Amino acid sequence: MLFADIIGQEAIKAQLRRFVDENRLAHALLLAGPRGNGKLPLAVALAHYLLCRMHHDGDACAACSTCTKVNKLIHSDLHFVFPVLKKKSSGPDSVPVSDDYIASWRELFIKNPYMTYADWLSKMGVENQQPMIYERESSEILHKLSLQSREGGWKIVIIWLPEKMREVCSNKLLKIIEEPPKDTLFILVSEEPEAIIPTILSRTQRIDIPAIEPASIAAALVQRYGLSGEDATRVALHSGGSWEKAEEHLRVDSDKEQYLEFFMQLMRVAYARNIREMKKWSEQVAALGRERQKHLLDYCQRMIRENFIMNFRHNEMLSMNSAERNFSVRFSPFVNEKNIFGIMEELSEAQRHIEQNVNAKMVFFDMSLRMIVLIKNR
């Protein structure tokens, strides 16, 4: 993972490079901020920059044997700590450490460096359990750092989601985080720094990682997914500075034509008060499956907001594509101050019911019936 591979965050990358180049790197860093902003890739890129002895022009060389090992996450002086799942059996072996899951973790990170906690839970097949960083992990870290660097350089420990550390584990690491061996670096990557015990926080230099700039997300979407500039900008504006949300929006975009058709059908049959067609519409939507039903309701709420804004003629605030705009030019007058909150509440309530596994046909048919009154309320 090179600094060049990271989306945006130019100021943070420059700051981390300066720390290394000017020999001002703290022995423990805390990279904090919301998910999807590249904290973990930044941590790995910093480790890569430190470990590569041929780095130049503000990045690792990407060609030496060290870079090859770091790219595969198998460098012997680069260690990863992350939440793991306790085994169901009893005994000392039931308490796992990160190395027990390292192959799966490497595979997930290499596939998606912007991986989330939810991605990791899915990879482990977690159902009701809560992965943690257990006490035994501290002993593993202390043992690894007691050994000499195998390649004669830095020893680096990246702790992903330290807020998941058991307190006893945190307490055992206090001394080594405060006074680590020479050329040893801890990088803590946190989404909830307020959940880390204060004694750990006080021993780190905190760097708040902001949301990614929309222009950087748009440029990455054009480069990596071949989107047009207009579509990339639209997705970037909806991402809230999160690459995770941008990619999620792309997945929804693949179904958007169908979602637009369902949205238009709903509004037309509601306006026409066509009960027979409403029943048919609700049966078609019920066949989508619950995840796509929730995405459809998200989409409908966005379209209602966009149509309301359209009435104020602030086109620069809209993020609809051409097909959505063509429909909305005629439909937007039906969304106004009298009914927007009622419509949004109906869509939100339907979403809650779908999440609670209420019968989908009933949910969508009831919602469409209520939409009759709301759409007529002009």
Helix content class = 40-55%
Instruction: Indicate the overall shape.
Output: elongated
CATH topology of the largest domain: Rossmann fold
Low-confidence stretches: none
Query: What is the element string, with H for helices and E for strands?
Result: HEHHEHHHEHEHEHHHHHHHHH
What is the number of beta strands? 5
CATH class of the largest domain: Alpha Beta
CATH H-level homologous superfamily name of the largest domain = P-loop containing nucleotide triphosphate hydrolases
Strand content is 5-15%
- List the domain count as a whole number: 3
Given the structure, what is the number of helices?
A: 17
* Major sheet strand order: 2-3-4-1-5
Architecture of the largest domain, according to CATH?
A: 3-Layer(aba) Sandwich
**SS class:** alpha/beta
Mind describing the biggest β-sheet?
A: 5 strands, parallel
Mean pLDDT: 91
Task: List descriptors.
17 helices, 3 domains, 378 residues, five-stranded parallel β-sheet
Give a concise summary.
By secondary structure, this protein is an alpha/beta fold.
Task: Give the SSE layout.
Blueprint: H1 10-21, E1 28-32, H2 39-51, H3 65-71, E2 78-81, H4 102-111, H5 117-124, H6 135-146, E3 155-160, H7 167-178, E4 184-190, H8 198-201, E5 205-208, H9 214-225, H10 229-238, H11 243-253, H12 256-272, H13 275-286, H14 290-310, H15 322-331, H16 340-355, H17 360-376
Parallel strand pairs: 1-4, 1-5, 2-3, 3-4
